[in-house]
């Protein structure tokens, strides 16, 4: 459109319905119809009105773009309920990085809550029915995750922060592994933590993790076991503790281990929440227990505790990139490189005296 048609007194971002109508050479009602009921407007007129909307910076320009592209430029994400502990800050930091990344790509993130997976799927259905989102970001993936199957079966773009976890340790099938995901290599993190403790003189660092059933927990336990295998530490010298994600539960389990024969001199933990409980037990028993956590939360930094840091900003960048690529291709298929396993970083801090 020739910019000479735009009235000189109209400033970008201050356009009105009247100025758009004048620029397009149509009535105010035609502009209103173009934005709210485009089917009532002739195709060439509709194109002219939408071009004027874009050029003048009229506030509903986003709506105009949505009318042309049939896209909302909005991504959906379930905001999980706080489950206690300090490691929930990981998802908070990921969410902030995700929103920043989406904004850089001229997308928004709409949040909703749900009590469980079924409630989350119901949220998907509602948002898709009302055309409020183009696709979804999923977190907290787990074995038997029905959310991914529901979205894939309907051709809805999505990407997960968390890899697909197989049931009963069986390899993931083609359909399960086909979707786009980004995850952090938990085994690499706990392997690095265990190797660090071995190198600093600890014969057999213990592992404090979660009960069976968590893919993430098993991944982190595996790194610890692999490091001990490589160091030739026999099974009889290994101490493994499993408790819920609770500082109190962790403190109780570690206190019992410190009171038993062959008490460990160091422990690798599946989270900073568990590590904080372990530190508390060691302080009460006046034991020189070296503790390494996982997630590198602000609490870990504040108390000088070593921990494994996740590359959350990089993960958010990749998740948005994968999801927007699917949306922009109109569901033609995921990008060629669709799964990313990122390396974490061990942050070593001062040891207890």
Low-confidence stretches: 1-13, 170-176
The number of helical elements comes to 14
Structural class: alpha/beta
Please state the CA-atom Rg, rounded to the nearest Å: 26 Å
The major pleated sheet works out as: 6 strands, parallel
Oligomer: single chain
Q: Tell the overall outline.
A: elongated
Q: Can you give the mean pLDDT?
A: 87
* Total count of strands: 12
Distance between the termini: 73 Å
Helix percent reads 40-55%
Strand neighbour order, sheet with most strands: 2-1-3-4-5-11
Topology as a string of helices (H) and strands (E): HHHHEHEHEHEHEHEHEHEHEHEHEE
- What is the strand content? 5-15%
Description of the molecule:
With 353 residues, the protein is an alpha/beta fold. It has 14 helices and twelve strands. The protein has helices spanning 17-24, 28-36, 43-56, 61-69, 89-104, 117-129, 146-153, 174-177, 186-199, 215-231, 247-259, 272-284, 298-303, 312-328; strands at residues 74-78, 108-112, 135-139, 158-161, 180-184, 206-209, 240-242, 266-269, 290-294, 306-309, 339-342, 345-347. The strands form two sheets. Strands 2-1-3-4-5-11 form a six-stranded parallel sheet, with helices on both faces. Helix 1 packs across helix 2 and helix 11 (247-259) crosses helix 12. The longest helix is centred in the middle third of the chain and has 17 residues, at 215-231. It is elongated. The chain starts with 16 loop residues before the first helix and ends in a 6-residue tail after the last strand. The relative contact order is 0.11.
């Amino acid at each position: 459109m020739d910019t000479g048609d735009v009235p000189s007194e109209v400033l970008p971002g201050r356009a009105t319905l009247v100025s758009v109508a004048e620029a397009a050479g149509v009535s105010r009602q035609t502009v209103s119809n173009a934005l709210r009921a485009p089917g009532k407007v002739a195709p060439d007129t509709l194109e002219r009105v939408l071009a004027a909307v874009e050029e003048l910076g009229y506030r509903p320009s986003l709506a105009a773009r949505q009318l042309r592209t049939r896209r909302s430029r909005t991504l959906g994400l379930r905001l999980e309920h706080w489950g206690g502990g300090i490691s929930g800050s990981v998802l908070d930091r990921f969410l902030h990085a995700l929103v920043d990344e989406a904004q850089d790509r001229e997308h928004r993130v709409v949040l909703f809550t749900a009590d469980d997976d079924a409630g989350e799927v119901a949220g998907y259905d509602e948002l898709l029915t009302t055309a409020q989102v183009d696709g979804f970001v999923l977190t907290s993936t787990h074995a038997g995750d029905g959310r991914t199957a529901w979205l894939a079966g309907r051709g809805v773009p999505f990407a997960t922060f968390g890899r697909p976890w197989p049931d009963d340790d069986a390899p993931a099938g083609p359909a399960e592994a086909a979707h786009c995901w980004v995850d952090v290599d938990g085994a690499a993190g706990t392997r690095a933590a265990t190797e660090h403790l071995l190198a600093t003189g600890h014969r057999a660092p213990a592992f404090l993790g979660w009960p069976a059933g968590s893919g993430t927990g098993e991944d982190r336990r595996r790194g610890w076991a692999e490091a001990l295998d490589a160091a030739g530490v026999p099974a009889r010298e290994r101490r493994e503790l499993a408790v819920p994600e609770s500082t109190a539960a962790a403190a109780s389990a570690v206190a019992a281990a410190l009171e038993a024969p062959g008490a460990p001199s160091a422990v690798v933990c599946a989270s900073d929440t568990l590590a904080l409980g372990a530190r508390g037990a060691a302080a009460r028993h006046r034991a020189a227990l070296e503790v390494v956590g996982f997630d590198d939360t602000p609490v870990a930094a504040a108390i000088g505790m070593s921990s494994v840091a996740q590359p959350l900003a990089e993960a958010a960048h990749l998740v948005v990139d994968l999801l927007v690529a699917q949306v922009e291709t109109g569901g033609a298929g995921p990008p060629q490189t669709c799964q990313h396993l990122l390396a974490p970083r061990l942050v070593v801090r001062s040891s207890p005296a």
